[in-house]
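call fold(seq) -> tokens
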Amino acid sequence: MSRFLHTLILVMLMTPFAFSQESDLGNWVIYLGNKKLNDKVNLHHEIQYRNYNALGDLEQLLLRTGIGYNLSPNNNNVLLGYGFIRSENYGDSSVKDLVNEHRIYQQFITKQSFGRFSLQHRYRIEERFVEENFKVRFRYFLSTNVALTNKKLVPKTVYLSAYNEVFINSQNQLFDRNRIYGGLGYKVTDNLKFEVGYMNQRFFKGSRDQVNLIANFKF
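ret:
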């Protein structure tokens, strides 16, 4: 199992370089929050500020929230949520097209731990109201964290983070996009983590690269 996980992490980290197409480098600043309401129920909320460049040329603002329910302690969480996404897309000119999207989503998350390694699977369905259009999309997210300076991911631990997420449309062009990420994080306390990493987002045609700055807070 340990050898398999090492191989999985190596593949996930190296794949972005295999997709070395022409792409622009942008920056995503991400806040992920989780409020424990009781032993079973949690409130998820997040803000993502996505830029075409290092900072200031807004590509997308994403606001997302949801109510989750734990099917078992610290594992197997189902969630119903809502998201608002404002996109500023460049067309054939330097003038941006503004697109607003309202999104309802359902997801299931399950987690496993193996010593230094932790895995997370997330299955998500999205009902997307993009201006006058309605779309349905499916997403599968696989992530792993590896504790580097301690035997487990406990407070004051530096860790390696990696994930792959594939997006599938329900009609027309099935493949929507694929995101591959590798980064380095620091767990400050049981409730606070910071990460910096690199993500490659591959579309049906072309790709984009992003530097991600992530804060993850539980309270």
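The chain has one domain: 2-218.
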